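User: I'm putting together notes for a lab meeting next week and I want to include a structural view of one of the chains we've been expressing. I don't have a solved structure, so I'd like a prediction I can at least talk through. The sequence is below, exactly as it appears in our construct file.
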Amino acid sequence: MYNMRIFDCKGGYIMFGNFDNNFFGGTPIMSNNGTGISVSGNSIMTTDGKVYQLSGGILYGPNGTMSMNVKSMDEAVGIVTGLCGGKMF
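Assistant: Thanks for the context. Below is the predicted structure for the 89-residue chain, given as structure tokens.
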């Protein structure tokens, strides 16, 4: 079992829950470039194989520090979603 959180940055909807191993964080956020984005703990994973970490207000990406003074996981997911072309509606 995993405790996952899924964020919808547009409407502020947050889904919390416990999911089994086959449930990759619920339905990922789909970005305009076709990348899925899921959240587990302080990690943000994309379906193109990139992992981002939020630690102490600093968002780390695959190439090092991406953003400082990140106030919440919502904001971090919004940053990653923006990097992937924005949220698909």
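A couple of points you could mention at the meeting. Strands lie at 2-8, 13-19, 29-30, 36-40, 43-46, 51-55, 58-61, 64-67. The CA atoms of residues 15 and 87 lie 17 Å apart.

User: Perfect, that's what I needed.
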